[in-house]
Amino acid sequence: MNARISSVRPHQRHVHVLKLERWRVWAIVTLLMALFGVLLARGLYLQAFNESFLQSQGDARYTRTLKLEANRGMITDRNGDPLAISTPVQSIWCSPRGMTLLPPGQKRDDDWEPANEKDPVPVSRAEVASLGKALGMTPTDIIGRITASTKKGPNGEDIRPDFVWLKRGMAPADAKSVLALNVPGVYAQTEYRRYYPAGEVMAHIIGFTNIDGKGQEGFELTRDGMLAGKPGSRTVIRDRRGYIVEDISTIVPPRDGETLTLSIDKRIQYLAYRELKAAVEANKAVGGGIVVLDAHTGEVLALANAPSYNPNSRARIDPAARRNRALTDIYEPGSVMKPITISAVMDSGKITPSSRVDTFNGTMSIGPATIHDTHHGGVLSIAQVIQQSSNVGAARISLMMPREYMWNAYHNAGFGEVPHSGFPGEAGGILRNWKNWRPIEQATMAFGNGISVSLMQMARAYQMFADGGQIHPITFTKLVAPMPGKQVITPQSAQAMRDMMESVVQPGGTGVAARVVGYRVAGKTGTSHKLENGQYVNKYVASFIGMAPASDPRLIIAVMIDDPQGGKHFGGSVAGPVFSNVMAGSLRLLGVPPDAPTDNILLPAPDESDARE
């Protein structure tokens, strides 16, 4: 054995040692290369395939995309007077992530420096108290805003947001005094606040926006996309304390909203609201509505409701006051339906203005039901049926025609479907299928019972008498030229009915209080019982709808007073004076020349109009 070992030469043993050492070297080199390859692959993966993740993580810590608010478009009346404008305001916000509250009594050292960039800035309770005083808030409110949004992370750590509103919509001067306190982590941002110069007068037309500038009611809601515009953006890098260090992308400027020009005439709107509000208060009514239309274009020149609300004070708006009664409420119209019924039958050739109808001394029975007149007229001409507002006469005239014919007449007048004015929530009313009509229902619909409408629908229907039998689409937008109308009755029938409605405001008619000095007026009164829980109750809706000048109508005005309780409830005495005052003022504002002597007013005897309706 020894001989065999001794037979191995020394240089051969050295070679074996070198081979062993080389193997170790190559193993280590290979391992290092493998590790380097792993790192290289990982880097390649992160840079090439997972770049978005790294970018998002970096952006979350340093970059912010700031929203640049667009200026909401202005709303104006037909003459360019502003009805809704946006004014710049300052909103105060803070960054809870960049601040930490010190214990009571402890102050921040004057030479305080952060250990690293992520350290929040200490804020003393005295600074919080000063901030609260400037904002009109208590220190507890401020602390609550800062801490309420804190969440727990996956490891139990507190995660604070970067952005919390403290107070929005401050006047620039007030916001400047807040920033002058130099409270760490507190900043201001420019926003826009909506302001409505006309206040409650235009509330039901314009509506209002919420604190974020989104439309909530009226045309602020329906035209929100047009008015809002498109916000811009600015991407920046912010430091630990929230200060902007650098813009890292091109600023995208905001696109301001467009201006919306309505058909409303602010002067007529003020007049209409004033007179309606006064009438509702004087008659102790639940509410009321008024609509003023251009007789030849269908443009809405005024629409008002009472009660109303101030859209500049959003915090305390009574939901009942937000009801747009003229468009969204439906009611049984009463006798203002008679001209539509009679003109439809007259259009068929069955009757003429001089035809006679027996009203049976004001009483007519159909089955177990009985129709009454408040005035026993006997045999009346068609013109007298309108002038004296005979229910029996209107019912007998309607029953001359088939049910389907009368249904088509009402439907062509716009009942049973929404007016399509572009306003939110407008009502279509109720017009039941003619196949389900009984004779008593056809008879009562002739004088406005058993059918439900909105005030806007009634105003729209009366266009047929003002514009040669045509009805134009209703619009709240100022028109360059009238839209085509739909012919619903012949021009001859329209003229004949307008002549008959002039007698309503003459001595012996039910609407004497609706006369206007210097102008011929054609119109109709209406008084209907209210329907509650399927039963008629001793509550009323008083209305008057008319047009002037009757020789060539320029305006149509519809007035409705809901449940007057001041001692009068007839349309002639409650709604008629509102019509008269608004029509007189509006015609003068528009410069419409008179078509009657200026002494054409004959005062009625006390309650003369009431006695006949």
From TrEMBL:
Pfam families: PBP_dimer, Transpeptidase. Its EC number is 3.4.16.4. It is an enzyme of class 3 (hydrolase). The keyword DNA-binding does not apply. It catalyses: Preferential cleavage: (Ac)2-L-Lys-D-Ala-|-D-Ala. Also transpeptidation of peptidyl-alanyl moieties that are N-acyl substituents of D-alanine. Residues 288-583 form the Penicillin-binding protein transpeptidase domain. GO terms for cellular component: plasma membrane. Keywords: Carboxypeptidase, Cell cycle, Cell division, Cell inner membrane, Cell membrane, Cell shape, Cell wall biogenesis/degradation, Hydrolase, Membrane, Peptidoglycan synthesis, Protease, Septation, Transmembrane, Transmembrane helix. It is found in: Cell inner membrane; Membrane. One of its GO terms (biological process) is FtsZ-dependent cytokinesis. Pathway: Cell wall biogenesis; peptidoglycan biosynthesis. It is a single-pass membrane protein. Residues 68-247 form the Penicillin-binding protein dimerisation domain. It comes from the Bacteria. The keyword RNA-binding does not apply. One of its GO terms (molecular function) is peptidoglycan glycosyltransferase activity. The active site is at 335 (acyl-ester intermediate). The chain crosses the membrane at residues 23-45. Catalyzes cross-linking of the peptidoglycan cell wall at the division septum. Belongs to the transpeptidase family. FtsI subfamily. This is Peptidoglycan D,D-transpeptidase FtsI. It comes from Silvimonas terrae.
